[in-house]
């Protein structure tokens, strides 16, 4: 039972709660913390009685050996608690049932965040690798099959899964979803079937060979610097007019159209661009593009993609900063105090959106094999 309005939640760990690198699929010790979905109550100030809150429940961290029953988050009655151990156990079953997957040479990274309420398992299947040759980096450019599965018990993350390729060089996160790649993002609702979704993940690994062909095609797809800047400005660096207004409106679409019209009428093209483009982020992405060009791969889609995964992977590190060409100042792209695991997941989602954008797909499809 939790009494609403009283502060009873004290975080025992901040951000990263536990981390383990190993090769045993059945080792789920990082996530072996129990959560429970239960009723919540509030105190009626007139009757001095505790009354159950209708249509609402709570998620609780239950640690019997410590006599701890800690409130985590309020949820609706439609919410379905998916425990980490149950989820990753089902994923193991799907992997073991896939006879095409080699389980002999794997590397597993388990991470738990925010008092174990968030869990992330990443599995590298090193026997399933592809070599793109020397793409300009002075060594073979190889990647291997990777599965990422994320879950939360505090409503902050949807259940998400990525199946794709992991690039050895620079350890960029070559995992994203979309039409050609596998990605699921599911809310925790009563209709969610964990076994069915994890089975899909297990089957999706069969597309690994096709993924390699996509990257080879990226290498053969030339781009210009002007096109790359246009890509960034029209996708990840684009500011929404409603966001600029910083006001909550009932009809966001109508408001956005009105604001955009007003902005176009009031400002010059240069002034308008300054208001609708995130130039701090644009500078960070162009700095990462320069990093990749220094490796000698040339100006192509593969280089641009690696610049994006460079940005999405190195959250909060030195590689997440760059020197302004105008002022010479060092600009940090991650806000101080940010939860890096949340920032990284958000960036990975944005990489998915960019790769699936019309401007990217149009460029990708121009190449005649």
Polypeptide structure, described:
- With 369 residues, the chain is α+β, with helices and mostly antiparallel strands.
- It folds into 2 domains: 16-29 and 79-216, no CATH class; 220-238 and 277-365, no CATH class.
- The protein is built from 11 helices and 11 strands.
- A 6-stranded antiparallel β-sheet has the order 1-5-6-7-8-9. A 3-stranded antiparallel β-sheet has the order 2-3-4, with no helix packed on it. It has a two-stranded antiparallel ribbon with strand order 10-11.
- Helix 1 (84-96) packs across helix 2 (194-204).
- It is globular.
- The protein starts with 15 loop residues before the first strand and ends with a helix.
- Residues 1-14, 168-181 and 241-249 have low confidence and may be disordered.
Major sheet details? 6 strands, antiparallel
- SS-based structural class? alpha+beta
What share of residues is helical?
A: 25-40%
State the total count of DSSP E strands: 11
Number of domains: 2
Radius of gyration: 23 Å
